[in-house]
Amino acid sequence: xxxxxxxxxxxxxxxxxxxxxxxxxxxxxxxxxxxxxxxxxxxxxxxxxxxxxxxxxxxxxxxxxxxxxxxxxxxxxxxxxxxxxxxxxxxxxxxxxxxxxxxxxxxxxxxxxxxxxxxxxxxxxxxxxxxxxxxxxxxxxxxxxxxxxxxxxxxxxxxxxxxxxxxxxxxxxxxxxxxxxxxxxxxxxxxxxxxxxxxxxxxxxxxxxxxxxxxxxxxxxxxxxxxxxxxxxxxxxxxx
Length: 240
Prior knowledge:
Elements: H1 14-21, H2 36-41, H3 43-63, H4 68-88, H5 93-113, H6 118-139, H7 144-152, H8 163-192, H9 196-224
């Protein structure tokens, strides 16, 4: 992606300035995969990664006549295939391992509990812990959304020296606290009422909620940053 100096040039339109402050210049060859929203969602591949192991776990369970070992085997196999595909695509080992472990822990916990609902019980706990982690990160002035987005945008942790970006990432991180709690709140009554089929459909709902949260996050960042701020790719540090 190519960017220009954020200072407005003679003859530059307001629309160009706004788009430039967003980190996207209208004349640039924008790679959709480099846009913050696309990067956080992961595109179609991200949808497959987030939904396939859970959906196939439930489908495998019902299709095999409620055979939990078959469901566990299917989910683990799918997670392994996705992990290999990530490695082929050159993704970071941390992301590969994290995705594989997330499915493996849920599947093995279900096997340990001898109950397919265990696959979702551990994920409820994970969502509650995620909400707690997001909230704590805000309190210690290291909002996790900044920790995630900063490296993606090539700015590392320099945004922490920019009061405007620190404020923006803190507000955005609260959205993800809410998302984690909402996901847990949706799954808990389904687990309590043994609604495995509906639990198998939650990945579709959750992906939609993530998409809405990502879009809302981008909107909050844009609304929080001052009009003269050069954008998330250009933190205004003290030294600058």
